[in-house]
Specification:
This protein has 164 residues and is α/β, with parallel strands linked by helices. It folds into two domains: 3-112 and 148-163, Rossmann fold; 114-146, no CATH class. It has six helices and six strands.
């Protein structure tokens, strides 16, 4: 099966997960989304980081070009993987692919470190802002900084190995 793993990565988290997934596809190809000009593959696996509850802008633009293909995707996010926010991201990204009549065969996600510039910006927000440096948010930021870790990479590999 001719497989492409295409990713968009801001801090390197999503790229690392993509590299782990590639191990499940010995003849697969991997590329940054910005370098892809051919979608002639049996399976396209798209990786993105989460921005405002969906794929980042570069990934959104790429996803718009994928039509009537067999698709899987993965993402990294600063929120906890079992959070309502993560579930909302899945719904939003599913819709992007399904609206283009793609066949969606699966998805994977894990926590990833948050861009330090974003943490700095959120730290300056007023306390009443839900994104501010509240005790809970700071705890989540610290936990996110540990990810993706070796267990996340192993889980990504195993998920995609079993998927096909």
């Amino acid at each position: 099966m001719k497989t492409l793993i295409a990713y968009s990565s801001k801090t390197g988290n999503t790229k690392k997960v993509a590299e782990s997934i590639l191990k499940a596809f010995p003849k697969g190809e991997i590329s940054d989304i910005k370098d892809i000009d051919n979608l002639d593959y049996d399976l396209i696996i798209v990786g993105t980081w989460i921005d405002k509850g969906t794929a980042d802008a570069k990934a959104l633009k790429f996803i718009e070009t994928i039509k009537e293909k067999k698709i899987a995707y993965f993402f990294t996010l600063g929120a906890y993987p079992n959070s309502d926010h993560a579930n909302d991201c899945i719904k939003n990204i599913d819709k992007l692919f399904l609206d283009n009549k793609n066949t969606l065969i699966g998805n994977f996600h894990c926590q990833g470190a948050i861009d330090p510039k974003l943490i700095s910006w959120m730290s300056e927000l007023p306390a009443e802002n839900p994104l501010s440096a509240s005790k809970g948010n700071v705890q989540r930021w610290k936990e996110a900084a540990k990810h993706p870790d070796e267990k996340d990479f192993e889980n990504a590999y195993n998920y995609f190995k079993m998927l096909v």
